[in-house]
Structure formats: structure tokens, C-alpha cells
Amino acid sequence: MCQTVRFSDGVEKLLQINDSILLEVGPGQSLSSLVKLHPNCDSAKGQFIFPTLRSQYERQPDESFLLDTLARLWLAALRRLETVSMPLKTARVIAADVSV
What we know:
Blueprint: H1 7-15, E1 21-24, H2 30-37, E2 48-51, H3 62-84, H4 88-99
Parallel strand pairs: 1-2
């Protein structure tokens, strides 16, 4: 049980997934900062990294920061939906037809 943590290898595996969303749950932003520094991290591939709690240096209230993160997650999910199989407008039309 006492083995070396291979954080970089794990992050590399996660970053191989295009359009990935990584969510850091817990205090601080240490892990998300390390992921952003990884050589394979590229926002052009559609990779999103979000912390859920603000750093101690930010003056934004915790609730406001969390709501901002939730909004960013929602926007990232919409972007991913648009690129997966069909344009978002088509998805809305399908959803509207089903509910009628």
C-alpha cells in the first residue's frame, strides 16, 4: 500500500480523451494547477479543467465561485454536445418534438 503516486501518468491518460472535463473537488486548486502545467494539456483539444472551490487568494465569495464553476461546466457540456454528433439546434428540435 505504500507505493509512489504516479500523478503525471494518470493525468496523461486522462488528457488523451478529447473534449474531456476534469473537475477538482475539494479545497484549493493545487491539482487543477498541476494538470494545466502538464505538457499534454491543450485547451485547443477541448479539455476543460475546473476547480470547485476558490483559492485562498481570491476575494470572491465561495458561493459565487461555485456558481461560476457550475456555469462553466454547463457551457463546456453544451460545447461537447455540439461537437459529438449533431448541432445543438437539431438537438433542441428533437427535444421539442418529443415533449409535444
